[in-house]
Amino acid sequence: MLTVDYDRLDLRPGMTVLDLGCGEGRHAFEAVRRGARVVAVDWGQEEVETTKRWLGAIAAAGEAADGARFEVVRGDLLALPVPDASVDRVMASEVLEHIPDDATAMAEIVRVLKPGGRVAVTVPRYGPERVCWALSDEYHANEGGHIRIYRRTTLRARLATAGLVPGASHHAHALHAPYWWLKCAVGVENDSALVRAYHRFLVWDLTTRPWVTRAAEKLLDPLFGKSYVVYADKPAAGSAGATPEAGARAFGVVAQPERSAADR
């Protein structure tokens, strides 16, 4: 399930892309399939190992595009293990709402982006998220949980304060919002029959992608899409000449992973 629109991100083969808070790697996978040089970062060691395994499996199955590379590292999003101005694109999907010092996280994104680079930031949308908070403290009041709900204008203003230029935006995953409302209503840890049934529907939708649910979600996303997605650019002031290859060299990104286990 992808939240970022790679066409709006303008991710092209050979670019170096940083996936922040990569989780189990869903956005990193697609970037590798598109021929990017991916650096995936997460604080959780389990998430890092899972992403490494899945990316290795994708490469071994021949699903990685020619020239694609990857590296998965454990790192702090407030002090990224990444050189200044070394990446073409950044993806920060469903991560900033977990970070108390989001201003420093945004400053780090600006630091590592090349001038003219672009970031895709996704966060839970205000309305659907507010419903979840109203229905259940358990949903958010836990270690590592959501600590804030962004309004669209607030997120865009904070990105601008960090030095980015917010641009296009959209919403995603309308069909997932009712699932979380239902879980919050019956208890997040309550594996009720209704929750299981809705989950089976979502899995079916993700695996088969029938036109009727794709059309329904496209229609419903502007109304109650679960996620808000915004794309923002770092101004290109006087820094022409940086190349995707330079970013890859800065990381020491290695050949495709089936050739070596060292980067896994």
Task: Characterise the protein shown here.
- The protein is α/β, with parallel strands linked by helices.
- Helices cover 41% and strands 19% of the residues.
- The protein has a domain at 6-124 and 147-171 and 227-259: Vaccinia Virus protein VP39 (Rossmann fold, 3-Layer(aba) Sandwich).
- It has helices at residues 6-9, 26-33, 45-60, 102-112, 126-135, 152-162, 177-186, 193-208, 211-224, 244-251, and strands at 16-20, 37-42, 69-74, 87-93, 113-124, 165-172, 227-233.
- The two termini are 23 Å apart.
- Mean pLDDT is 89; it is low at 239-264.
What global shape is seen?
globular
Quote the average pLDDT.
Answer: 89
- Rg, rounded, reads 18 Å
For this structure, what is the CATH homologous superfamily of the domain at 6-124 and 147-171 and 227-259? Vaccinia Virus protein VP39
* Element order: H for helix, E for strand: HEHEHEEHEHHEHHHEH
What class would the helix/strand composition place it in?
alpha/beta
Task: Report, as a whole number of angstroms, the end-to-end distance.
Answer: 23 Å
Q: Percentage of helical residues?
A: 40-55%
Largest sheet: 7 strands, mixed
Count of helical segments? 10
Q: Looking at CATH, which topology of the domain at 6-124 and 147-171 and 227-259 would you report? A: Rossmann fold
The CATH class name of the domain at 6-124 and 147-171 and 227-259 reads: Alpha Beta
Strand order of the largest sheet: 3-2-1-4-5-7-6
Beta-strand content: 15-25%
Uncertain segments are 239-264
Task: Give the CATH architecture of the domain at 6-124 and 147-171 and 227-259.
Answer: 3-Layer(aba) Sandwich
